[in-house]
Design a protein that fits this description.
400 residues; alpha/beta; Aspartate Aminotransferase, domain 1; Aspartate Aminotransferase, domain 2; 2 domains; seven-stranded mixed beta sheet; three-stranded antiparallel beta sheet; binds pyridoxal-5'-phosphate; transaminase activity; AspAT/PAT-like; transferase
Length: 400
Amino acid sequence: TFSPSDALSRIKPSPTMAATQAARDLKAAGRDIISLGAGEPDFDTPDFVKDAAINAIRNGKTKYTAVDGIAELKQAIVAKFKRDNGLDYDTTQITVAPGGKAVLYNALVATMNRGDEVIIPAPYWVSYPDMVLLTGGKPIIVAAGAESNFKLTPEALEKAITPKTKWFIFNSPSNPTGAAYTREEVKALTDVLLKHPHVWVMSDDMYEHIVYDNFEFATPAQVAPKLYDRTLTVNGASKAYAMTGWRIGFAGGPLPLIKAMAKVMSQSTSNACSISQYASVAALNGDQSFLAARNDAFKTRRDLVVEMLNDATGIECARPEGAFYVYPSCAGTIGKKTPEGVIIDSDETFTSELLNAEGVAAVFGAAFGLSPFFRVSYAAATEELRDACTRIQRFTASLQ
Ligand code: PLP
C-alpha cells in the first residue's frame, strides 16, 4: 500500500490550483462559469518573446544548459536588477530555476534545518507555509490585516523574531491582497531586521511591474544595503511578461546561498527549460513599454471591481496598489442564509455557495491565512468582470 512521507503528510495541495481546477471541471461539464481564481495574466506572451523562443529552437538551443542558467540570461538579469532596483549583482550571484516557486523552494531546501522558523505575514501566498513545512521548518504566521492595509507592521515583525528565526518572507505587491509597501514602509521593516543579524530576507518581487497610480516599487536590499548579504531578491518572467507556462524564475543573492541553491538543482530539477531561458533574455532585454499599456488595462479593471464589490451588500473591498488581485471582506454575509437555507458560516462556505448559485469561482480567504475574506483575480476581460461582479451583487442580495 502507498504510504506518504511524514513531510508530505504535513502539507495540502495548493488551494488556488484546486479552485482553478474545480472551475475548469464545472465549465467542462457545461456550466456557465466565470473563473476569478486564476493567478495569471490573461494577456498573451508578447510576440517578440515568442519569436526568440522559435529562433532558439531553430538554432538548436535545445540541450541541457548550465544548471542554474545560461550566461546570456544571467547577464540580462544583472542588467534588470541594476536598471529597475539599483542593485549590483555579479552573474555568479544570479540563479535561474523553473519558476519563481522553484527559486523559493530551492532556497529553503538549501538552508532549512528541522525546527527553523520562517516568518510569514498573513494573508500569504498559499505555498509559503507548505514549502516551509516540506523542508522541516516551522511557519510563523503573523497577522497583517485590513486595519493595517494588509501590511505587516514593524512592531509585529519585531515580536515574531526569535533566536530560531531563519527567514522572513516578504511579498510586495502581494498575492492575495495586491497591497504594496512604499519605500518608507519597507524601511520600517528593514530597520527591525538590521537589529537581528541572524534573520535572512526572502523578498518575493514577482509582481514588481504590476503597480498603479505611479506607485514606486521598492525592495529590501535596495532600501537597506546593509541587508544585501542576507537577502535573496526573487523575481521572474511569469507575471510581468505573461509567461506563466514557460517556467522561468530568478533571483540575486549572496554567492554562498546561490551556490548552495545550484547544488540543490544539480541533484533535482537541473536547468530550467533552455528555450524558455532564451525567450526570457529577449523579454528582459527588449522594449518594456508594453508593460505600461497592460497596467492601464489592469488599473481600469481594478477600479471597476473595487467599485462593484463595494456596492454588494455585506462586502467591503480595499483598493490595492498592485498585482491583479483584490481581497474583499465577506464579514457582512457571515451568519446569513442562502435561499436554499445554507448558512454562510465561513469564507469557504461563502465561495462554494457563490459558485453553486451564480457560477463565479473565487478563492476563500482561509487558504491565505486570513478570514473572512476571499480573493478575486481581475486578470479577466472587462465584460466578464462586470458580469461576475453583477452576479456577486445578486448573490449577496439573495442572502437573508
Ligand atoms: N510568488 C508569488 C507571490 C506568486 O503569486 C507566484 C505565482 O502565483 C509565484 C511566486 C510563483 O511564480 P511562478 O509561476 O514563476 O513559479
